[in-house]
Amino acid sequence: MSDIVLDVKNLRVEFDTYGGIVKAVRGVSFSVPRGQTLAIVGESGCGKSVTVQAIMGLIPMPPGRITSGSAKLNGQEMLGLSPKEANQFRGVEIGMIFQDPMTSLNPTMTIGDQIAETLIVHRGYTKKASAKIAVDLLDKTKIPEAAKRARQYPFEFSGGMLQRSMIAMSLACNPTVLIADEPTTALDVTIQAEILELMLELKRTEGMSIILITHDLAVVARVADDVAVMYAGQIIESGSVDQIFYESAHPYTMGLKEAMPTNKPNEERKLMPISGSPPDLFHPPAGCGYFARCPHAMDICESNQPSGFRIAADHYASCWLHHELAPEVDALHLVGDQ
Amino acid sequence: MFKYTLKRLLAGVITVWFIATATFVAMHAVPGDPLLNDKAVTPEIRRNLEEKYGLDKPVFTQYLIYMGNMLQGDFGISFTQQNRRVNDIIRDHFPVSAMLGLLAIFFATAGGIVWGALTATYRNRAPDVVIMFLVILGISVPSFVFAALGQLLLVNINSWVGYSLIPVAGWGTIRHMLMPALVLGLGTMALLTRLMRSTMLDIVNADYIRTAKAKGLSPLRIFFRHQLRNAILPVVTILGPQIAAITTGGFVVELVFAIPGLGRYFVQAVQQLDYTVIMGTTVFYGAFLVLMVITVDIIYGYIDPRVQLE
Fold first, then answer.
1. Residue A76 forms part of a structural domain
2. Closest-CA residue to A70 (of A37, A42, A110, A31)
3. I want to staple B301 with a disulfide (CB 3.0 to 4.6 A). Which of A112, B78, B173, B309 is the partner?
């Protein structure tokens, strides 16, 4: 399909550690349509950051290793490239922003210079021309007094402003995809809303696709078109944001929703944490990764990996409950309708 | 900025005054006096000499006289070298020590940054292991051993070439300075290498380096534009005291290479209790150290934008 910008297939990433080999990403596939936002959701350590860092070639190798898979950007393979080849698309076709804006910018370089650097390197602009565009970009990300701010250093900025600058920097070469790795986690809630708003607006005006990594379902509901839920290094459910929220098909997704606070104070509802902890990825389970914590676990789940069952158009869930021989589970639909 | 410099200089003057006073007290607390030489001095001659040098007056009066002279820039006359003014000793020999010291600092800084960056880049691989082994040697082996080895090396080189390509000792041309400066800077170079290595290793894993990679910058550009400048900051910090230590601590190296530097006078004066030379060289070196530290602090304000001088 031509409107798929980024297509990732069966990505597997391992890390050598003193304790053994950690299988951090175990066969992840997803695709990002042009101009859409894909949210990758999951708890800490489920492999969501590793997935995008592998695509960007940011995983230190060694100890990291991509054992299989492909990631095609507009049909071009991105995995296994030399740093020089990878730099053809890093910062050009794909921009990336990170979790902690306070430490993600060089403390001894002005904001303007750091934005201009991308243009000088990739577009061959002169220092003067790129500096001017840097100011325009800061303006675009709604930083007041952009010209003055461009000459300042990161320590003179607040967290929200730094994240805006990061966004401005990643936009410098008009990327087709913007990867945002927990962009609002380190910011307070009001700033968080502003940054998300800014990202949505830029998505519309610049026509780029966004991969948003987060563990915050409220953020997902707000900005995502499509959602991929990750657990223990695999995507266990994917679909449109409505499908994931209103027709959840995987017990883990339901569990996540149960554990999410609502902002309706008069509604009596208890937060239901998911008991237990994710499996040890030194020795990933043979069957479903969620088996040990799943309230609907069956015998088959322990030893057999569920494949993606098609629930509806573009809605998949890796759960045996959707096999034709599985019993009907009422709770599944009860929670799903909420 | 100007106000800051002025403030620091004022504090520096107080520091120097303190150094002078402490040295004066310590010097007079040492038993004996400069006239107790091996030559027999009759009580009469001794009285005359004491009168000449003002040693017959109470110590506190001597202190006041000395401080008064020092304020006018006069360090007095040496006790042991006939009629030689301390000012002249410093003027004649300090430039030699300073020249040697600056060259040593240049070697040490350049070497420390290059080796440190290299070890960090090749962490736990052959270049790292070899260099870090040499660094341990550089820190722990005293400089006179390196000085002797350096001379031996020069002798071999010169006899191989057939003429005195690099002089083994003495002073005068830049060729004379190379080996002693290298030997003198070796300890500091080793120290800076370790410092540079550890800061570089911190920075390699910094978030902003990941950002630079995500921007698609070449490894070389990342190294020079993003890593180096941040890694150099701690090196610059300790450079001030190191400059002073090298410039003043060259005594052994100066001796081995027969260099007419100030270090020799500094040490000899203490042995002979040459009051004025002790005071003069100590106060001068103290002032030099203070000045270097202030200079480095001011430079630091330019290198690190987060440091605000006020």
1. no
2. A31
3. B309
